[in-house]
Amino acid sequence: MPATSNRIAIIGAGVSGLTCAVLFAERGYRPTIFARESGQQTTSAAAAAIWFPYDAEPLDQVAVWSLQTLETLRDISRDPASGIATVELRVFARQGMLAKPRWADSLGARPLEAAELLKPGIFTSGYSVHVPVVDTTVYLDYLRARAQLAGAQFSTGVALRSVAEIDSDYRTIVNCSGAGARMLVGDDDLEPHRGQVAVVGKLDLPCAVVCDDPPLMYAIPRTNDCVLGGTNEISENVEPDPGDTSRILGEAARVLGIPPPRVTQERVGLRPFRRSGVRLESEQLADGRTVLHNYGHGGSGFTLSWGCAEAVFALQSATLATS
User: Fold this and answer.
1) H or E element: which one contains 138?
2) Domain locations in the chain?
3) 3-class secondary-structure state, position 69
């Protein structure tokens, strides 16, 4: 491709921005990531990061992007340096029979037997499925290193007020700004869904646990620790709340039948939920440049990352074909 067309700017260094950087760089582009924060300072670093479509719309398209991502994560997990493992995930309901989503059937999900419902009297039903879990303390660095190896560059500490502030040499801008898109592009459809987690020492759990019924509860075991959650409320507060931590630990202890574990870290991230659904579309700026929007993934950033990156690349290819 012409040298002027293979330079591309990516806004955001969370999992969506990093994934796009890897994909574009490994396909001959020269991406530069512009971000205020990177690595463990991003919202992505606070995620439990288990493959599980959650808090994102529209459901049908989310399922498609999620399954595409699943295949890629399985491939990447063959590299021990990626920080990706496969775990059994048990999803529970506190009342009635939990209906399996359609994507679960395609992964061989099975209903749980009564003896698999953890402590008696807490859960009434559930299903089991094997999915990837991503250790964010490893995977985000893995993506950055892979992107840089392929030629991507990083410019961090950059606080943008609009996408138009990106240097005009970049004729294509990929907007992966997450919750920041509310201000960056004036998208009032975007809601910050605050999620707080407590990271504790390694727990001897037979599986990962998720229950979306109030109170939201999950326990995601990783190689060296375990992520306990959580919260989901509309708020821009990114400071850990001791009351939330206490509730998270109390519910985890009750469900798992263990003493409240010692907290090694409290993390808060703002899930970028978009009421009208994930925004994945192209837009032309007044100066003729193209913006490819890729945000609004809610609580499914890791789950949607590769499927949405492929869709962004397809948009770019279509733009070049018509230019």
Assistant:
1) helix 136-149
2) 7-322
3) helix
Q: How far apart are CA 287 and CA 281, in angstroms?
A: 18
CA distance 171 to 168: 6
Question: In degrees rounded to 5, what are phi and psi of residue 98?
Answer: -80, 120
CA distances from residue 81 to 118, 141, 149 in whole angstroms, order as listed: 33, 10, 14
- Name the residue type at position 25: A
Give dist(CA 71, CA 242) in Å, integer. Answer: 38
| Tens of pLDDT, residues 13-46 | 999 999 999 999 999 999 999 999 998 999 999 9
- Reported pTM: 0.96
Tokens describing residue 40: 């463990």
State how far the Cα of 18 lies from the Cα of 11, in Å rounded to an integer: 10
Backbone angles phi, psi at 109, to 5 degrees: -65, 145
Q: Which CA distances in Å does 22 have to 17, 31, 149?
A: 9, 9, 9
> Residue 260 gets which letter from DSSP?
P
Amino acid at site 30: R
Is pLDDT above 60 for 2? no
Identify which of 112, 132, 21, 17 has the alpha carbon closest to the alpha carbon of residue 66.
Answer: 132
- Which CATH number is associated with domain 7-322? 3.50.50.60
Residue ranges with strand state E in the chain: 7-11, 30-35, 84-93, 110-111, 125-134, 153-156, 172-175, 190-201, 208-211, 217-221, 225-229, 233-234, 263-274, 279-284, 290-295
- 208 conformational bin, left if phi > 0, alpha if psi -120 to 50, beta if neither: beta
Q: How far apart are CA 38 and CA 18, in angstroms?
A: 10
